[in-house]
Amino acid sequence: MFRLAVVTVIGLATVLFTGQAMAFQCPKLVKQIEDEIAIRFDPASQDAKAKAAQAAELHAKGNHAESEKVAKDGLKILGK
Question: Positive or negative, the Cα torsion across 46, 43, 67, 33?
Answer without folding.
Answer: negative
